[in-house]
Amino acid sequence: MDGHAEDEGRVYQSRGDQHISEHHHHYARGPEATGGPDSVRRPLVSRAPVVLRDRAEVLNRLRESVEPNRGGEVHVLHGMGGCGKTAVAWAFFQHATEEAGRVGLWVNAANRASLRAGMLAVAADRGAGDGELLAARGGFRPAADLVWHHLDRSAEPWLLVLDNADDPTILRDGHWLRTSPRGSVVVTTRRSATRWWPGAELQHIGVLPRDDAARVLCDLAPDSGTVEQAAEIADRLGRLPLALTLAGGFLAHQIIDPWTMDTYGRRLDEDRPVELIDRGADPLAEEDPRHLVGQTWQFTLDSFEARGLPEATALLRLLARLASEPLPLALLNGPEIGGVLPRARAETALRALLDHSLTELVDADVRCVHSHAVLLDSVIATTPPEHFAALDATAAALLNAAVPALPDAGPHDPRLRLLAPHVLTLLRHTRGQATADGALALATRLATALHRTGDYLSARETARAAVDLAEPTIGAHHRLVLAARSREGRSLFRLGRYPEAEALLNRVRADQERLFGPDDPDTLDSCHALQLVLGNLGRREEALALLRHTVAGREATLGAGHPLTLRSRASLLVLLSGPELAAPGSGALLSLPEECERHLGPGHIVTLGARHNHAWAMYLLGRHDSAEAEIGEVADEYRRRFGPDYPLALAARQLLARTRAALGDVGAGIELMADVTRRRESALGRGHPFTVASRDFLAALRDGGWHPPQPPG
């Protein structure tokens, strides 16, 4: 049998039974034959940092690992996309190769193909022969073993960077991540769970401090504005290094119509922030989603879908409808979350987001979850608009369940203040009057709850911001808008801003009376608040007339036994003078605590308030023993229930100081008033009217110039 073969052909000739097996490995000739990277000696980064800001502490720790005779260490730099992990690795790589005498090796570990090709290129760099590499590529020799065989025997110490290792299973399944006495390894990843990195030293890379973030913008665009203007832009960008780099690049390369930083800030308000930020990318560079804030997180969301975990994407979209502020974790455990994902899957979804650095756990007096603003903006930009209604309805239901249905006096609750930015963000997202009505009612209820825990500043800010957001949609004279403004006025009073409170409550009351009538419950609420302001301004007669109108209106519309009616009646005990309290016919008013207890119970806050005011009446009437006994019990109950710094507790202790001094124990009065004054200065400030009154009374006790009021008759 004759045969002919050309080039790489084969001719086989045999007699008898022969079994021939051939393995063909087809690859091109030349440098591209391996399909590997062009270099592993240079970092594969699209844009090296002009100046690396802030990262001195972590870089110092990394530099120690490449000192002489050091090796066998693995450092994992983890954090959310765009936070600058690769930039830190790049800076460390430059130090290791230029100053520490290390061979630098850089591998893109974003996927199996690039990791495998890069690591085999590392093996080639460290001396692997063509035959060894060919066998590893063909599957005849374990590739990872080959790489680490040559790394372990490297004549020179080295630094190996595994960049973008966001899928640790790729490293684990191939046993690509190991240690060696001849070098150190740095991994950059979004995966923060320690289970992926046994034996490694983990280092979180977060956003930049404000000053350093501002300097990044000034480094990139030095002629666009001042450091303070840059700091304001940096705050708007959440101090995320990727966003700062893109913004600085945009500002630096405007030729036809250069922008200032102020212009950029205004456009962030007017345009879609994510689209504006991404305009800073190099238009001629190869497109890479990791280098755009609008896309850098999308491939992670795509991986959730591919791995059968759509709940993680749904949860992130839900968080994006709320604020980029700490959100109490308890909210995510409510049945209301079922509007967008099964409640039983919320835990798994949250773990996935945490593991991929798409959110983080923070301690803000309560356990919270916190997501970056730019990330949430980019998620909103890619969320199908048809999902917004369900997401907003679910967010509203979760917040509605978290805010007390009937806010009552109570101790400081850190959860309430944490809810405020989320409620306001929900209101900002609402479209149409019906949804705005519900969101504004929720915001006003939250402001009421904050007020009744003594957090008057947060209450005022929440009510005012809610009105500003809702008024363009539902109108300035909507009942809910006026109720929120009335709530703001109450908080202004408690903050000691009496003229502002009077002006606002007068205006609101006039509008309510004109629109709803003088005896409408909302109008009477504003009347009750206004009389408090007038009484503290020394305008007793005006306050008393308004309070009597309020009592009569509430009795007519709500009934004599309603808590609001009883509260207004109890306020008469404070405004009436001693002779008025002693006049015939005041017996019903002086028996008000018993009436409150009969209608509401002994522990109700209105009953306690009536007893407090009744003790004041007894003090004015000269019945100091009765007043001291009653206010002592009330003060102890306030302190037990609300804590020593609660405003009602301090007011009760101030009255207790008066009664004890009136009974002749001036020393006890001074001791009590010194404590009250110190606490009020700490909580309210030295200039607050309540603080000034306490300080003046304390001074009068100390210099002997104070005398109790004379009993009537």
UniProtKB/TrEMBL annotation:
Highest taxon in the source lineage? Bacteria
List the Gene Ontology MF annotations in alphabetical order: ADP binding
Q: Which InterPro entries match?
A: NLR-like (IPR053137), P-loop_NTPase (IPR027417), TPR-like_helical_dom_sf (IPR011990)
Q: Which Pfam families match?
A: TPR_10 (PF13374), TPR_12 (PF13424)
Q: Which SUPFAM superfamilies match?
A: P-loop containing nucleoside triphosphate hydrolases, TPR-like
Q: Where is this region: Disordered?
A: 20-45
Official protein name in the record: Tetratricopeptide repeat protein
UniProt source species:
Streptomyces hainanensis
